[in-house]
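Case study.
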Amino acid sequence: MAQKPSIPKGTRDFSPMEMSRRNYIFDTIRSVFLKYGYSQIETPAMENLSTLLGKYGDEGDKLLFKILNSGDAFSKLSPEDLHGNSASLKVCEKGLRYDLTVPFARYVSQHQNEISFPFKRFQIQPVWRADRPQKGRYREFCQCDVDVIGSGSLLNELELLLMAGEVFEKLGIRAAVKINNRKILSGLAEISGHPDKITDMTVAIDKIDKIGLAAVREELFSKGFDEVSVSRIEPVLTMSGDNEEKIAILRNVLSASQIGNTGLDELEKLLSYVSSAKPAVRVDVDFSLARGLNYYTGAIFEVKALDFEIGSICGGGRYDDLAGIFGMSGVSGVGISFGADRIYDVLSGLDKFPPDIAASPLVMFANMGDNEVSYVLPVVSSLRKSGIKVELYPDKAKLKKQFEYASKKGIRYLAIAGENEISEGTASVKDIISGEQKNIKIDELLSFLIEKN
Amino acid sequence: MAQKPSIPKGTRDFSPMEMSRRNYIFDTIRSVFLKYGYSQIETPAMENLSTLLGKYGDEGDKLLFKILNSGDAFSKLSPEDLHGNSASLKVCEKGLRYDLTVPFARYVSQHQNEISFPFKRFQIQPVWRADRPQKGRYREFCQCDVDVIGSGSLLNELELLLMAGEVFEKLGIRAAVKINNRKILSGLAEISGHPDKITDMTVAIDKIDKIGLAAVREELFSKGFDEVSVSRIEPVLTMSGDNEEKIAILRNVLSASQIGNTGLDELEKLLSYVSSAKPAVRVDVDFSLARGLNYYTGAIFEVKALDFEIGSICGGGRYDDLAGIFGMSGVSGVGISFGADRIYDVLSGLDKFPPDIAASPLVMFANMGDNEVSYVLPVVSSLRKSGIKVELYPDKAKLKKQFEYASKKGIRYLAIAGENEISEGTASVKDIISGEQKNIKIDELLSFLIEKN
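After joint prediction, the assembly is written out as follows.
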């Protein structure tokens, strides 16, 4: 019996139109990365589970897709194994890539002797997560990461902002970057009297836009902060003004914190670079930005589209010692990641995809039968030699059907050569959009099409 | 303890240089596909095992990478399951894509109402096979497939030959295509008196180049062909001459076989198209070509490089009813697949990769310290605005180190602005290849670099 075809939940097929649009996004991002001197790498879809496990927290470990060992995987299992949590590790040694960061850290450590540092790399590949599928969240999705590793200079942070600006400018998306610095958050935790509660604190203040001041205060109280502690953090939650004013307020709040002031120094220096190099994107200081990720140690970035309501379309920050887990300590890195699916949704929602994105052929020759095909074949070949995108309809079918095929594919001209045209040495060329039709000598066809190309 | 990093056997990391070379191959192939009006699709890395199992023979089923169900996969297993072959199917519902053909058939069937036929698609994605890794054989490798589905016209076969010719011409690889037709092989089996033994017969004659006539005869005898049968097949094994002469001999051999003559008719028609459209590749009839694959029903193709000893670099053929397994019968298709890894090896072996493939930045500004960076930043930004690929070294390091970094990355010019240059409003620009160095006014830098670009 024939199978009813389907694909695993949370995964997607990409149609030709979707592919054109996705390639447009990836090609734009890639061209900017290359322009700034970043080099592309790729890593395998599968990594050893020993590389992946323990890097994403307990929750992340559960979301790894594990691959069954080939051969007789189950002979190693005893019946007791079926009741514990160890069975999967006895039958699986490999898992699918969960992000691009851990494979990159593994790559840098493994190939450190071939790499000249600072290493500016980008990577555009799918990742897989056994998340519960829901609207806008997939089990297979593409990440676009760009990182510099082996340099602590804030010029790298600047470069990432410049690239984000250029990518979104090229795509026609108005965007703004929020920036913060993890050291400032550490300073805040310090002056609140709870340096150990930095995670609880940042999780709470990260929610200020969503749940408001009162609820953030409540959450902080529930995590063991008292009224005095909260009052020291509160200026961050209520401040307004431009970047300079915000920094001035924080200088005051953090005056007693050395790490906090280091964070403010870094932020000010980065902003001075920004005013000198002028990225094509607004840069706003936001001390409530935390991005939940524990491994950031310096700058934190997040980009949002200004004209479309959706989560962040790009984000990242500086991390120290990521490669340290693979035996290479003290290497600082900074990077950002572009969210291709969300960028796609923004471009769709704002109708900003260029109209000619499908790169359809310029002309299709109709198939009027064997004799006509012999007349047309050398013409088609010579047009292609000149670089024109040409189709020849493969079957002798009703002209209406051929016309519809060309029209659906976004082909601009339909060229028809029947008996009359052959005897005249011409082709009848119909503009599919305007309906206009004219006879053109075969040897003038190329210049006609080049002009219209 | 730090882990010693490694990747699963049979998989690969791709370094920046390898990526530049691979992208060059893929971009070349993709540009040709697009020029002929083929549209790109992508399918998920994971398919349901029900889609994959039974499509590649028993051996193929064993080579599928299966993905462990998420959640508590093992609670469904009883101790008895551990002894049979069924355990993996109880804990795995998904597998990794084994080729692009079955996912394409699934795609066509699943999306038939959105597709306008004939559907000309290409797909460039990795596939995974649990093969024993060995030199040149990987467990993860990229396939580049191009197919037309929904048209029986031989113009499609022609188009594939034209595209293969154009791809290898663009890559600078001299190549030749062997063509055959499965119907001719069916005719041969028929006149040998063993139409049911077509597979044994084609497997044997496919080996003629490798093992020679005597051994092929032996193999045929061992499969139950007698002397009379073998004598009828033998002209195919010993023939020489050009395409026309070969076809004439086969017309004679196959005179009693209707299907054999249909195959020869198809071959002749395709060759007449070839002489009219002139692909950029030699086309040789080879009646021993079988390509082992059971699903070909018409034309069979194989491309080999002429100047480098390696297996086929491209191949394919016509298949009928592939989508039939997914409930869509009677749809004929034809396609070819490019072997990216082998093409890479040919280009490496012949030293045919273009020298400027890495697309390195044209210029790098040295980092001479904070003051100098302020002078240089607006210059770097304005050069980038003009489309020049520019790096600014992020750290204040010894000039020698910065020079070496630029040199290793294939950057052509190193621009240095120290105190003197700043006071003069210039930069000192060193040609890294020639060693030549000169002072250039900042506002003349752009025109200097554009000229050198």
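Observations recorded in class. Chain A has a mean pLDDT of 93. The two ends of chain A are 49 Å apart (CA to CA). We will return to this complex in the next lecture.
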